[in-house]
Design a protein that fits this description.
116 residues, mainly alpha
């Protein structure tokens, strides 16, 4: 089971520039860690850095699938909820293909639950 500290290490491994912000987020809790990571992924997508965004989403998928309950809730309520707005930041039609199946499935469930 992954905890917030392990999640932060995995994030910093692919985004070393986020280390200082991640230390601040760690002090605030799991939701802050996921929120910061979500913001970083949004920026990657907006900058059309889809290869790194795909790698980051694989880490997010691992956090969602193997994280403790608090991390899972944070991913559902932060990243999954933001996925549509993240996708809107790119004109690349391959974006949805880069979203890991676990996250995509959670997104579809969330959309159907809300009747959007």
């Amino acid at each position: 089971m992954i905890h917030k500290n392990e999640a932060a290490i995995a994030i910093i491994n692919i985004m070393p520039e986020a280390e200082q912000d991640m230390q601040t987020a760690l002090n605030k809790g799991a939701f802050a860690v996921v929120q910061l990571f979500t913001q970083k992924i949004k920026q990657l997508v907006a900058d059309e850095r889809l290869a790194l965004a795909e790698q980051a989403m694989k880490i997010m998928d691992k956090i969602y699938g193997q994280g403790d309950q608090l991390l899972q809730l944070a991913v559902e309520n932060t990243f999954i909820f933001s996925l549509r707005s993240i996708a809107a930041r790119t004109k690349n039609p391959c974006f949805w293909g880069a979203v890991p199946m676990g996250l995509y499935t959670a997104y579809i469930h969330q959309v159907y639950r809300s009747n959007i």
